[in-house]
Amino acid sequence: MRDCEKSSIAGVCSAALPGGGLRTAKMKPAQFEISFASSAFKAFAVLLLLALPALAQMGNVPIGVPAQDLPPNLGNVSFEQRLNTQVPLNLMFRNEFGQTVRLGDYFNQGKPVVLTLVYFECPMLCTEVLNGLASTLRIMRFDLGKQYDVVTVSFNPKDTPELAQAKKHAYIQRYGRPEAQNGWHFLVGDDANIHALTDAVGFHFQWDPKLQQYAHATGIMVLTPDGHISQYYYGVEYSPKDLRLGLVQASQNRIGNVVDQVLLYCYHYDPRTGKYGAVIANILKVAGLATVLILGSFLVFLFKHEPRPRA
Question: pTM for the complete prediction?
Answer without folding.
Answer: 0.64
